[in-house]
Amino acid sequence: MSRAEAELKSEQGIELLKEGQVEEALKLFAQAIEEDPSYINPYCHIGNVLSASNQAEQAIDWFQKAIELDASFATAYYGKGAALYNLEKWSEAQAMFTKAEELGLENADLYYMLGMSSKNQGEGYEKQALAYFQRALDYNPDDVEALFERGLCLAYMNHIEEALVDFERVVEQDPEHADAYYNLGVAYTMSERLEQAKECFEHAINIQPNHLLALNGKKQVEQLLENQ
Q: What is the per-residue DSSP string for 125-177?
């Protein structure tokens, strides 16, 4: 049994994953564990593969094994958090992401997932979610989805002008973001800029013709314009 051999097989498994050879990669990760059962990385690699394959329950078991081997391994907590998130266990996922942060993991993905975990817990978590999305943007200012989610938080908290700025930045960076156009339309409606609202709803519908919320928003704005 050899740590060096385990590391080699783990690295080879990662290369196979990049090539899309998932089953062969899993075999190498299993062999890496056989070579050195105390080597943590392949447990997490298997967990990530399972999590990405909609096998979150099984993934959690592998991340837990890694945590039992080294309770200070932040990546394992992040992986377990992601699997719990996929199971819609928002508060448990947030606890794992928070633990990963406490252990030194800091990046845009972590703070985005902390934000989403907070947001999905519903009313009362908006300020917390907003703070996490801001941290995600501090690490990666070009993170379109973090920007969009920050805009949603701001809109929900009735900071409409600030939300408008975020949604406008989203559509500048991603002109095919139908939901951003829809939310821009809502924000413009709330600030009584009806012509701009109508244009945004139309953009959303052009991108996604079955966008029911945008279709309804456009109808309501047209009625408001007729009544002016």
A: -HHHHHHHHHHHHHH-TT-HHHHHHHHHHHHHTT-HHHHHHHHHHHHHH-TT-
- What gap in Å lies between CA 55 and CA 92, rounded to an integer? 17
Tell me the per-residue pLDDT of 119-159, one tens digit each, with 9 for 90 and over: 999 888 889 999 999 999 999 999 999 999 999 999 999 99
Query: For residue 219, what are its two tokens?
Result: 């109808």
User: Position of tokens 């080699």?
Assistant: 8
Question: What pLDDT score does 1 carry?
Answer: 63
Instruction: Please tell me the pTM assigned to this model.
Output: 0.91
For the four alpha carbons of 22, 23, 24 and 29, in that order, the dihedral sign comes to positive
Q: By C-alpha distance, which of 117, 127, 110 is closest to 91? A: 117
Is residue 69 within 8 Å of 40, Cβ to Cβ?
A: yes
> Which pLDDT tens digit goes with each residue over 16-73?
999 999 999 999 999 999 999 999 999 999 999 999 999 999 999 999 999 999 999 9
Cβ-Cβ contacts under 8 Å for 9 (sequence gap 6 or more): 28, 29, 31, 32, 35, 42
